[in-house]
Design brief:
Number of domains: 2
Bound molecules: 7-O-phosphono-alpha-L-galacto-hept-2-ulopyranose
Low-confidence stretches: none
CATH architecture of the largest domain: 2-Layer Sandwich
CATH topology of the largest domain: Fructose-1,6-Bisphosphatase, Chain A, domain 1
Number of helices: 9
Strand content: 25-35%
Helix content: 25-40%
CATH superfamily of the largest domain: Fructose-1,6-Bisphosphatase, subunit A, domain 1
Length: about 325
């Protein structure tokens, strides 16, 4: 896995560069197509047997990077891959903050294989690892995180997506005295931020996309935190899709190890627009600068990487 680290960085950088012309364009399909093709081309250059386990929908609805798609030139390394060529298509085409390109990888058989649907998630940084329980009432989790971090509840910062479906959570957080910080889009970066000490974020929670859940779980695991989740199939058909992908209990709790069952994992994300952890791509006379994070689960190393590209040259 480790020999592929820089290759994965190149995958997200090239997808972000491909998305750049579509920032502010209003054209979600073109933006997604551009980033997806760039990602796919780069993945196919890599020396690995890669399989998409969380991606751009299923084979009949997504032409590229669909769940089950095989990628790479072959070789000895067999890799599970979760992708979101544009995490935040709406902010990308509206020219707003919080859009990234993102990928996560781990040895074959170690990433959750599930359909694209909603997922309930909770994540904390290393200090509160082992102290949360997605099945417990939110107030108990808040108290447990306060105890584990040595903070008063009023000092806790909780990140949650600004959606009507989260009203009860937001009310509970604020009634407890903790602070609920609302964001519009892009929950992978916000889950990751719980593990970055100087961001002063104590907890992330809410209902968002399942692929974003697995992507966030790899980052959080690689940085020593904890995430738990639960898929939310909305009907019998979604339950059956989960079962067909091998999930015996589609509505059951997913522990961190069920989301990602290896420390030997890799996470790479490149900013399309600015966000809590990264600047977006900056253009200057045909040159562009990308800003990325690359996280290596094996040595728990987080790297911030700035790269320069001449957009007239092929990446
Ligand atoms: C979620 C979240 C993503 O879109 O999927 C969200 O996980 C969609 O939520 O990070 P809604 O259906 O309520 O719009 C993102 O924010 C961006 O892709």
């Amino acid at each position: 896995m480790q020999s592929l680290l820089l290759d994965f960085l190149k995958v997200t950088e090239s997808a972000a560069i491909a998305a750049l012309p579509w920032v502010g364009s209003g054209n979600k399909i073109a933006a997604d197509d551009a980033a997806t093709s760039a990602m796919r081309d780069q993945l196919n250059e890599m020396n690995m047997h890669g399989t998409i386990v969380m991606g751009e929908g299923e084979i009949d609805e997504a032409p590229m990077l669909y769940i089950g798609e095989n990628l790479g030139k072959g070789g000895e390394t067999e890799v599970d891959i979760a992708v979101d060529p544009i995490e935040g298509t709406t902010p990308t085409v509206n020219g707003q903050d919080n859009a990234i390109t993102v990928i996560a990888a781990a040895p074959k058989g170690t990433l959750l294989h599930a359909p694209d649907m909603y997922m309930e998630k909770i994540a904390v940084g290393p200090k509160a690892k082992g102290e949360i329980d997605i099945e417990a009432p939110l107030l108990e989790n808040i108290k447990a995180v306060a105890k584990a971090t040595g903070k008063d509840i009023t000092e806790l910062n909780v990140l949650i997506q600004d959606r009507p479906r989260h009203k009860e959570y937001i009310d509970t957080i604020r009634k407890s005295g903790a602070k609920a910080h609302l964001f519009n889009d892009g929950d992978v970066i916000y889950a990751t931020a719980t593990c970055i000490e100087n961001k002063n974020i104590d907890m992330f929670l809410g209902v968002g996309g399942a692929p974003e859940g697995v992507l966030g779980a790899v980052a959080v695991k690689s940085l020593g935190g904890e995430m738990q989740a639960r898929l939310l199939p909305r009907n019998e058909e979604e339950v059956n899709r989960c079962k067909e992908m091998g999930l015996a209990d589609p509505r059951g709790v997913l522990t961190h190890n069920q989301l990602v069952d290896s420390e030997d994992c890799i996470f790479a994300a490149t900013g399309i627009t600015d966000n809590l952890l990264l600047n977006g791509i900056k253009m200057n006379n045909g040159d562009c600068t990308t800003h990325s994070i690359l996280i290596n689960g094996k040595d728990k190393q987080l790297r911030y990487i700035e790269s320069q590209y001449n957009t007239k040259q092929a990446i």
